[in-house]
Amino acid sequence: MTPWLHIIGIGEDGWDGLSPAAQSALEAAELIVGGDRHHGLAPHLGAERRRWPSPFRAMVEEIGAERGRRVCVLVTGDPLWYSAGAFFARGFAPEELCYHPHLSAFQLACARMRWSLADVETLTVHGRPAEQVVPFFADGLRLVILTQDATTPAAIAHLLAERGFGPSRMTVLAALGGPNEARIEGVAQDWVAEVPDFHVLAVEVAAAPDARPLPRWGLPDAAFTHDGKMTKRELRTLTLAALAPRRGQRLWDIGAGCGSVAIEWLRADRDMEATGLEPDADRRAMAAANATRLGTPRLRLLDARAPEGLADLPRPDAVFIGGGLSRAVAEAALAALPRHGRLVANAVTLESEALLAELHAAHGGSLIRVAVSRAETIGRYRGWRPQMPVTQWSLMT
Question: Which helix (H) or strand (E) holds 125?
Answer without folding.
Answer: none
